[in-house]
Design goal:
The protein has about 120 residues and is mainly alpha-helical. It has helices at about 1-25, 30-35, 45-60, 65-90, 95-115. The chain starts with a helix and ends with a helix.
């Protein structure tokens, strides 16, 4: 189980880091998606920071299980919020947010099972 967590945590950390960089640099596809669901421009640095915190927490969970668990819960909540934001404005392009909500949930399960 721990090897599964390591693989998933590293891949998710890379994905969250890339997404955070795209948020911080105001990549048009990321900003366009967030603008479409009504995210204010001033929230972008905070949302990027949340993604970085999740990435670091998942990696820290390799050594300190509770940090990996907390990071996984945080990322699940973040992306559930994204799904809700999309549904609220009737934008049903939910696949990326749903996948990114499920993967940290799986990581949480793997981390808990391996502790």
């Amino acid at each position: 189980m721990f090897i599964g967590y390591v693989v998933l945590a590293v891949l998710l950390a890379l994905a969250m880091t890339g997404s955070a960089v795209a948020t911080f640099t105001r990549n048009p596809s990321v900003v366009g998606s967030m603008t479409k669901v009504g995210v204010p421009d001033g929230w972008l640095p905070w949302l990027g920071t949340a993604k970085v915190a999740g990435a670091l927490g998942l990696l820290a969970g390799l050594v300190i299980p509770v940090l990996g668990e907390a990071a996984a819960v945080g990322l699940v909540l973040y992306f559930i919020g994204a799904v809700v934001a999309h549904v609220r404005v009737k934008d049903y392009a939910l696949a990326p947010a749903l996948v990114l909500a499920v993967l940290p949930a799986v990581a949480l399960g793997l981390r808990v099972a391996s502790a």
